Amino acid sequence: MKLSDRLIGPVLIAAGAGVIYAASRLSDVPGVRFGADLMPTICGVMLILFGVVITRAGLRDAGPTVSIAEWRVPLPQLLAALWAIGGLVAGGLLFEALGFVVFGVVFMAGLMLLMGARGIVVALTGPVFVIALHLLFTRVMFVDLPAGILEGVL
């Protein structure tokens, strides 16, 4: 399989448009100055801009396509990439049921272990970081995150 910037750029543009569309469907958060769609819209615009830059470079240079068969990735990094992609899919399906904290700790711990972090670092960093993020979003930014199986505890 071969990829070219002439193909990757339009894919990023389409992804950015999809993010902006999805962001426009988010409901407003009462009591905040900016709506829930602000950050996703900014990310969508950035995806579109990067897509335009990559497409222009691909059309201007018209260089050779890159063969994916030539890529050599060490197994731990490949597994980490697959974990990240699988985590995004699983997150879409299980996020409400598991909740932000449980899903975040499991996802982050798995990724850190696959990237070679020591167990003690994973055990301390993952939960502390995810709980701090949860508190930031729920207490400071008033974003309602799902509690999932920790309903009543959080």
Automatic annotation (TrEMBL):
One Pfam family of this chain: TctB
Transmembrane segments: 38-59, 80-113, 119-137
InterPro entries the record matches: DUF1468 (IPR009936)
Signal peptide: none
Organism ancestry: Bacteria, Pseudomonadati, Pseudomonadota, Alphaproteobacteria, Rhodobacterales
The name this protein goes by in its record: Tripartite tricarboxylate transporter TctB family protein
Keyword annotations from UniProtKB, A to Z: Membrane, Transmembrane, Transmembrane helix
Species this protein is from: Pacificibacter marinus
Presence of the UniProt keyword Transmembrane in the record: yes
Domain DUF1468 residues, every copy: 8-146
